[in-house]
Write a structure and sequence with these properties.
2 domains, Flavocytochrome C3, Chain A, domain 1, alpha+beta, FAD/NAD(P)-binding domain, 15 helices
Length: 462
């Protein structure tokens, strides 16, 4: 299918039932869902490129009790998914939101499938005991695949998506309900009336201002986020009295290649398929599939504050994103483990010993050193051998706008701000103090759909 063409700004109308701000996974899911329920919808995106941070997601979409899992012989339990996510989030997750989330992941996989978007392969990410991370059978990175696929649906359903259109203000009626937006599109300011507005603007991982305000200790860190992730939705919401919550909870992703001006996130699927992490001595130092918070802290505690991901051709075959990492020059190649060790400047005998010990742990399914239990389907045995230099970087902002499980935005008194809904990374509460890999893509679809349904219920009553 030809590349998606945004609608020209000249076609921006004065009235819609629903205005969706943001064109990532959340915004597109919300727009499709609301449109299919009979709403007249417009999607507004401030950047030229559509898709937001969703484009950068690489591992997959977590879901429990799916038919896909059963096809792969994985027997799962939604309650386990709930408890593991709650524990991994430091028990700071909003329980009602988390409950809604885990029970709606399998229907979200089915909903995507109904739209021709098939996630038929599975892998595992840190903090999960089962293979819950769904991805396309091609093993392509989930983000780009999902954005392109959702835009195909948007095109088919003729939902207008306007890029380079920045919302500068939420409009409110005298009774306080949100009833439209003010936009700046190509230098022209325009007022658009709407029955309801959905904020799907993503997080603030690329906002020096918000990071400095809430996490000054991370001010010098690089970010995996796209440049537009500057917290605009938070500002819009704050200006109409919305409450922000857990804003100090910022996730640092452990495996980010940042030796070049462009920062590349190395997806968790690489570890999920069997890669290990070694320090400058060529030794393992952590359970690689512990939570992101723990793995990041262990890397930061090393004298060099960085590490190497080490893997073989067998693992590479199972994580297709590596082809891209290689193409852009991030992957070091070795014919043997010894050869690889010399190229990354670690002791060859140490690295060989580390790999031998790891392969034995895989064979016996018993990692006596670091108690790893997942991502052990294959050892590091198949030539060639590869390494990627990584260090932690700002990745995800768990805090955000305080919402209900129905995506309604709350003010500081806990009252609902009528006509305003928020979903995805712009909203806080779901993840606690640590987001599990694969849960953000699931959140975009689960709560994007929820927002689309809830705005419809709200608009029908007006």
């Amino acid at each position: 299918m030809a590349k998606f063409q945004p609608t020209s700004v000249g076609k921006l109308e004065n009235n819609y039932d629903v205005v969706v701000i943001g064109s990532g996974g959340t915004g597109l899911s919300a727009a499709i869902q609301a449109n299919e329920l009979g709403m007249k919808v417009a999607v507004l995106e401030k950047e030229e490129e559509l898709g937001g941070n969703t484009n950068r997601a690489s591992s997959g979409m977590n879901a429990a009790e799916t038919n896909v899992q059963l096809h792969h012989g994985v027997i799962d339990n939604v309650a386990d998914f709930y408890h593991e996510t709650y524990k991994d989030g430091g028990r700071l997750n909003d329980k009602d939101m988390l409950g809604y989330f885990v029970y709606h992941t399998a229907p979200a996989i089915d909903w995507l499938s109904d739209h021709g978007i098939k996630l038929d392969d599975i892998t595992v990410t840190g903090g999960m005991s089962k293979k819950r991370t769904h991805r396309p059978a091609s093993m392509a990175p989930i983000g780009g695949f999902l954005v392109k696929s959702l835009l195909d649906v948007v095109a088919k359903e003729e939902i207008p998506v306007f890029n380079k259109t920045k919302v500068i203000k939420l409009r409110q009626a005298e009774d306080g309900r949100v009833n439209g937006v003010e936009v700046n599109a190509e230098g022209i300011t325009k007022i658009i009336n709407a029955k309801a507005v959905i904020l799907a603007t993503g997080g603030f991982g690329a906002s020096k201002e918000y990071i400095k305000r809430f996490r000054p200790d991370l001010e010098s860190y690089k970010t995996t986020n796209q440049p537009g992730a500057t917290g605009d939705g938070l500002k819009l919401a704050e200006n109409v009295g919305a409450e922000l919550m857990q804003m100090n909870l910022v996730q640092v992703h452990p495996t980010v290649q940042q030796d070049n001006p462009h920062v590349y996130l190395i997806g968790e699927a690489v570890r999920g398929e069997g890669a290990i992490l070694v320090n400058s001595e060529g030794k393992r130092f952590v359970n690689e599939l512990n939570t992101r918070k723990i793995v990041s802290n262990k890397i930061t505690a090393l004298p060099e504050h960085s590490a190497y991901l080490v893997f073989d051709q067998g693992i590479r075959d199972r994580a297709k994103a590596i082809e891209f990492y290689d193409k852009v020059g991030l992957v070091v190649h070795g014919d043997t483990i010894e050869d690889l060790a010399k190229k990354i400047n670690v002791d060859p005998s140490n690295l060989q010993q580390t790999v031998n010990t790891w392969n034995k742990a895989v064979e016996e399914h018993n990692d006596t050193e670091f108690k790893r239990t997942t991502g052990m389907d294959r050892g590091i045995t198949k030539p060639g051998f590869f390494a990627i230099h990584i260090a932690p970087a700002i990745h995800y902002t768990m805090g955000g706008i305080h919402i209900t499980p129905k995506t309604q935005v709350l003010d500081g008194n806990g009252d609902i701000i009528k006509g305003l809904f928020a979903a995805g990374e712009v909203a806080g509460g779901l993840h606690g103090n640590n987001r599990v890999g694969g849960n953000s893509i699931a959140e975009t679809i689960v709560f994007g759909r929820q927002a689309g349904q809830q705005v419809t219920l709200y608009a029908r009553k007006l």
